[in-house]
Give the backbone structure.
Amino acid sequence: MFDTVNLEAREHLLRIQASLAADAVLQQRALTEKLANTSLSDLGQRALDATVASQGAQYPDCQAVLECIARGVDAACRALGLDIQQGIVRGVMPIRGLGARSSDFFGTGIAIVGIDASVLPFTGMLTDLLAESFEYRATAEGAAIVMDEASCLERITGGKTLLESSEDSGEGRETLVHHWERFFLHFAGFSVAWSMSKLTEAQEAIKFQLTSAMEVFIVGHEYGHHINQHNTGASAASSVPTEEAHKHEFEADRTAWVIAKFLGATGFAGKPTQVRNTWMESSAGAVAYLVSAEIVRRVKETLETGTAKDQCSPSHPSINDRLWALERWDGFENEPLQAEFRVQRRFIARLILSIYNYLYPKFVAAHEAGFRPTHL
């Protein structure tokens, strides 16, 4: 009986994927028609045309990565006694979003969890940039990150003003900040070319840990909705009051943090290892994902309207509220690493925000020049 229900859930996942893809195409067509009737600059129109033409990119490796991360989360749930009921059916949603979702399969105790197709390319590109952007110092255990956002920003910008940096880029001389700019624009609605980073062995190790820390949080958060039974009964209705919806998000975050703390301490980093992953254990990886995804949202809003505001939706708390919730409960009240982990979380948040603040005038200028993001 269970195998039959599980198969039906997988078939339902395929229907969800097809429906989302069809809806995304329709929304993109409507947006393209709308933008075609606006007075975009020639440069803005060419950028829009090129972006729309490349929207069909698929990420075939995402499902395999999702299954790998989910196996670790499954193991953590078993070890921690977290009840995933009848199990989880997982899939990649064929849209260029940075979100994930969880839904109950008709009261069977099975959850359908899906991540958007851009989530894994997003974590991969982001950790390439972070690994290159950190300042390192030599220690007896190897290279260690200098957790000082000011020195990292100096490394990223080359110590130049935004105007000087823009002039360098125009003349073919680039620093890391130009790669950060393209990263934010890419996921805000522009498809831009991306070359593979050439990382050192130490940087590759940091990238691997950070990537899996982010992905464990994303998947663990959706498991958290299932574990806390947010998707069943009255709580699954679309009319859930804002306060209740926010409470559900905080509970799912906390469950994801419990899972990440366990896996980080026991050595999971995308595959079984004996190396402790403090980015996962401290939830600093979760902070990096949440802050970066929020910045992408702000960049997209800036391209659309010329400005960006903090967002608190009926379904999700603001980014500041979610980060402060982690500060109030970090699970390390009696741990010697509590202070170290807080430094790690705050460092990564401030660094990414500093890069965004440096680049913000360029996003405003892009809006004024007629650049507009696409839906997909």
Summary: The CA atoms of residues 137 and 143 lie 6 Å apart. The chain has 13 helices and five strands. Residues 2-36 form the longest helix (35 residues).
